[in-house]
Amino acid sequence: MPDGATLTTPVVICVQETSIVAIPRAIEEKVLTLAFDKIAKENETEAALRRGEKLADVFARFEVL
Q: Which distant-in-sequence residues (6+ apart) come within 8 Å of 8 by Cβ?
């Protein structure tokens, strides 16, 4: 952790190859819901682009790339 950073418990720690995120348990459900919603939109975006839809149209619909 950077100097001066404070971590209070309880938290959920999410680790990825290039990043670490600490989510306070008090907002865990909201954060995870938002994250999974974004992943779903990303998957729909990818599918639409693979079908040949235009990038601008796909972004206008999902607001995610």
A: 24
DSSP H or E segment with residue 19? strand 19-24
Confirm if 57 and 63 have CB atoms less than 8 A apart.
no
Map tokens 């907002």 to a residue.
27
Q: Both tokens of residue 14? A: 């999410």
Q: Over the stretch 9-64, which tens digit does the pLDDT of each residue have?
A: 788 888 889 988 888 888 999 999 999 999 999 999 999 999 999 999 999 999 98
What pTM, to 2 d.p., does this model score?
Answer: 0.70
Give me the amino acid identity at 7.
Answer: L
